[in-house]
Amino acid sequence: MRRLLALLLLLPLLLHTARAQAPPPLPPDSTPDMGIHQGRFIGVVAGTAVVYALTSYFLGKTWYTKRVPFHTFNDNGEWLQMDKVGHATTAYAISQGEYQLFRWSGVNERASILTGGLISLLYQTTIELFDGRSEGWGFSKGDMVANISGIGLFMGQQYGFGEQKASLRYGWRQSIYPGYRPNLLGKSIGSQMLKDYNGQQYWLSFNVASVLPVGPSFPRWLNLDVGYGASGMTGGHANPPYFDAAGKEVKFTRYRQFYLAPDINLARLPGLNNTGQRLLGAGQFFKIPTPSIEYSGLHGVRFHPLFVGKD
Question: Is the Cβ–Cβ distance between 261 and 307 less than 8 Å?
Fold first, then answer.
């Protein structure tokens, strides 16, 4: 998944910022604007520009090697829409990360929200334009709708509430399916995290204390996550025929999975100083493995002590 790869290339910049400044107490916009810190602002702008340029160059040289005339491509029916949810999650994460960077540099709340959203849109649109000129892909209107949805989720909450009551997160566990189509789904664990939609989950994570009228003793770090996944997929629209060593055809049922699980909001853990809050909060793109309940039409209800292991 090229969007996830682009986000992973952006994380070092976010983690560098995390060591220097934490998110302020709830709500995040309660910290007064003290004016732009020139050194930080220049560093954030330059760092974002360098990461964007390197990401574009790296993807152009390694992923998009065969160029064709610009064209569109309707992939809305592929991978049981896992890629669309992935687009929204990545766009959300970039928006939030850039917002935090610009707030740290002293840019005011509203300008930081807008800047974070626009930078995320730039990242995602650049990749879509690459897709439109690449053999095997194409510019996808569905992808752009998903990108804008993720950005809108961040911006709408930050403008409306001054905090993120609900966030999007990424989870992964190794599946069996890359063994059947390693060139498509990945040969190594790293490539499978990017390519194997069977192993990915996407979570809408609600901070309980932000959405329910709980008392002051309620743990403010507790989140409740609703997740989506899909499995049994060895092709985008359908599974191609596969035969084992004995010549017997192996068939898989494609199905959707829905999850419910507790989670931890790392930025709200008690006893942390500001630097610790920012450093831990920067990793909130990833879902922390916790016990979960899964429902699917194929298996019914299943309980996972920890969300790890092969399907």
Answer: yes
CB burial of 99-129 (b: ≥16 within 10 Å; e: otherwise) equals bbbbbbbbbebeebbbbbbebbbebbebbbe
Q: Quick: pLDDT tens for 231-287.
A: 999 999 999 999 988 889 999 999 999 999 999 998 888 887 765 665 566 568 999
Query: Domain locations in the chain?
Result: 2-304
The candidate with the shortest Cα–Cα distance to 115, out of 49, 205, 57, is 49
Query: Taking a C-beta distance cutoff of 8 angstroms, is the pair 113, 158 a contact?
Result: yes
> pTM of the entire structure?
0.87
DSSP the chain: -HHHHHHHHHHHHHHHHHTT--PPSSSGGGSPP----HHHHHHHHHHHHHHHHHHHHHHHHHT--SB-S--B---TTGGGGHHHHHHHHHHHHHHHHHHHHHHHTT--HHHHHHHHHHHHHHHHHHHHHHHHTBTT--B-HHHHHHHHHHHHHHHHHHHHHSS-SEEEEEEE---SGGGT-HHHH-SSHHHHHHH-GGGEEEEEEEEHHHHS---TTS-TTEEEEEEEEEES-SSSSSPPP-B-TTS-B-----EEEEEEEEEE-GGG-TT--HHHHHHHHTTTTBPPP--EEEEETTTEEEEESSS-S--
Q: Which residues contact 118 (CB under 8 A, 6 or more apart)?
A: none
**Count of residues in the chain:** 311
The amino acid occupying position 198 is N
Count Cβ atoms below 10 Å from residue 21 Cβ, excluding itself. Answer: 19
